[in-house]
Amino acid sequence: MDYTFQYGQVWPYLPYLLSGAWLSLQIAFLAFCGGLLIGTACAAMRSFGKGPLLIVVNAYVIFFVNTPQLVQIYFLYFALPDMGIYLSSYMAVLIGMTLNAGAYLTEIQRAGFESRRRSEMEAAEVLGFSRLQQVRYVILPHVAKVLFPPLSNHYILMTLGTSMAAIFGVEELTGRALNVNSQTFRSLEVFSVVALIYIAVTLVASVLLALLGRYGFRAKMRVV
Amino acid sequence: MAHLELDDVSAAYGTFQVLKGIDLSVARGETVGLVGPSGSGKSTILRVLTGLLPPSSGEVRVAGDVVDYSRASEIRRLRDRCAIVFQQYNLFQNLTVLENVTIAPTKIRGRKRAEVQPEAEALLARVGLSDKLGAYPDELSGGQQQRVAIARALCLKPEILLLDEVTAALDPELVSEVLDTIRGLAAEGMTMLIVSHEMGFIREISARVAFMAEGRVVELGSPADIFDNPQKERTRDFVGKILRH
Ligand SMILES: Nc1ncnc2c1ncn2[C@@H]1O[C@H](COP(=O)(O)OP(=O)(O)OP(=O)(O)O)[C@@H](O)[C@H]1O
Ligand SMILES: [Mg+2]
Asked: Residue B156: its chain A contacts at CB < 8 A?
């Protein structure tokens, strides 16, 4: 291979790329938090609810889990204007990712809700715990412990998934990489640097989440 | 007066009648063994005595006080007086050994941590677990977990201890450490009702043994009566099967 790497042309853009990465992190974080709220509410409804609301929740989850995220965002960005609803590309991506996360997190959390253990609750009951105390001291810590690993996995996936925003012109890390590429034409250098930034970001997030899971929630997680 | 008394107690799961008129009493400081085939209702008796299943008829008395199962406050009082240890220790997996023992007295009963902790440590020392205070249940052997469960029950200072197959889930080499703990309690005069398949142990520790079948107490007597000289056909059958294998 007689290609000569010329990272020199890419370095000046590093701060520009890093602030793009910061935007990626923000999108992932906001969409995850929104998705967690939606997912918790929907999982509770799926576990305990009934009637028309349950049908709506099920339809929502089935739709968002079984269609590509890209198509979902396309729908928000290109189809909604036909109905008179205009979203900026940033909002379309954020809402699309939030709704998508909500559906996946519903599925993940339902499993956690259903893993609460009868026997421990019975033990708590004979020790004199009220229902609320059982939730506080037995159910929640257990659910948190069970759910933490799959939730943090999903968070990492979402961080990488934010690159989809580039398609809609959002200047997050991948979007800015495309910009730098069209100015320097050093594709290999630009995208290898960008790949390294993604790796660094997800590694740091994984380690932090694993530490939090392990020592905060006693979840079975490997730190690196 | 008997410390614990069941007077013609019946109980059902839905429409399925499990206990059909149980009469049984345990004197203060006495250990009574409860034996019988699987499904005969032994665990169900203990569930009634801890308020997990209210009886459909009959009376339960603790030190002469009739328990009114329709009142939550009386169920709480019953649970204060009768503690149970289950076959599957049922420890809180997210809490350490020490926290498992102290959580109910401190968080539920509202006693001071500073006061409960030395008691909990003494109890855990007694069951031989002084070096495991900070361990989590999944880091312990089954026998150790079962001893934590016993300490947890004792930390609420119950008058009566109910034990349901506390050694059934344990490897044989771990059984003796749990049995030693129970022997110690009997020697100290704890009132106990013990369900177990360890016939040798039941025979050794019980003042009286009740043999149950199909929701009834078929025969009640001294261990020698029940194991060596059973009067009823059903008891002979059961004892015969057990002694043969
Ligand atoms: N939660 C429940 N719902 C319905 N039926 C139950 C329930 N728990 C127990 N039973 C039934 O009640 C009967 C008595 O059960 P119990 O657990 O008291 O038996 P046991 O004498 O303790 O048996 P084992 O020696 O197997 O523990 C059994 O026929 C059992 O199937
Ligand atoms: Mg049983």
From this structure: 127-128
What number does the ligand 1 atom closest to the CA of B13 have? 4
- What are the domain boundaries of chain B? 4-90+160-244
CB distance A127–B92 less than 8 Å? no
Q: Which two tokens stand for residue B146?
A: 């079962």
> Are A43 and A106 a contacting pair, CB within 8 Å?
yes
Give the mean pLDDT of A93-118: 87
Looking at the whole model, is its pTM more than 0.95?
A: no
CATH superfamily ID and name for A16-217: MetI-like (1.10.3720.10)
pLDDT for A4: 80
Q: Is domain B4-90+160-244 classified as CATH 3.90.1150.10?
A: no
Is the pLDDT at B244 greater than 70, yes or no?
Answer: no
Sign of CA dihedral A189, A190, A193, A199: negative
Tokens of A113: 């809700």
Q: Mean pLDDT throughout A95-105?
A: 96
pLDDT of A224 over the 80 cut = no
Strand ranges of the sheet holding B208-213, from the earlier edge strand across to the other edge: B82-85, B160-164, B191-195, B31-35, B208-213, B216-221
